[in-house]
Amino acid sequence: MSDTVSNESGGNGPQFLGQQTPLPSSPEEAVLDYVPNPRAGALYLTRFAAPEFTSLCPVTGQPDFAHLVIDYAPGETIVESKSLKLFLGSFRNYNGFHEDVTVGIGQRLAEEMRPLWLRIGGYWYPRGGIPIDVFWQTGAPPEGLWVPDQGVQAYRGRG
């Protein structure tokens, strides 16, 4: 397997591994790195969980908190995890409704990485007393792919 790595800006090599890297100021400025799938041709699922995700309410500017779960079946590439962490962290300064944020993350990953299949679950903590959960996927999972439950319970408050 080739050690060539590509990223959105077209460069070679991971831009962030082993580097002190500040958070990008916005999701638009964040660059995601992709590396060749080390098991190309194998059908498997990769899961990223971000239980402390934050963005900003577009109306009040107050922080919103979510537990994100990203599942995908890799195609030719996988996303490099540090670049994904920086991308997700860039939402700390982003004003967006839960639907915009959750679906936007899934769409960007799907468009750039071109996985066989991808889904994202955004389990948002209550805003105005109402928890909002947002789910998006690229389509039906490939036949034979083991897709476990995302394991995040519905919000129950203190009870």
UniProtKB/TrEMBL annotation:
Keyword line: Cytoplasm, NADP, Oxidoreductase, Queuosine biosynthesis
Entry-linked SUPFAM superfamilies: Tetrahydrobiopterin biosynthesis enzymes-like
- Write down a Pfam family by its short name: QueF
Gene Ontology BP, a term: tRNA queuosine(34) biosynthetic process
Q: Which residues form a coiled coil?
A: none
* Residues of the active site: 57, 64
Known EC number(s)?
1.7.1.13
Catalysed reaction equations from the record:
7-aminomethyl-7-carbaguanine + 2 NADP(+) = 7-cyano-7-carbaguanine + 2 NADPH + 3 H(+)
Q: Which organism is it from?
A: Pontixanthobacter aquaemixtae
Name assigned to this protein: NADPH-dependent 7-cyano-7-deazaguanine reductase
Source species, domain of life: Bacteria
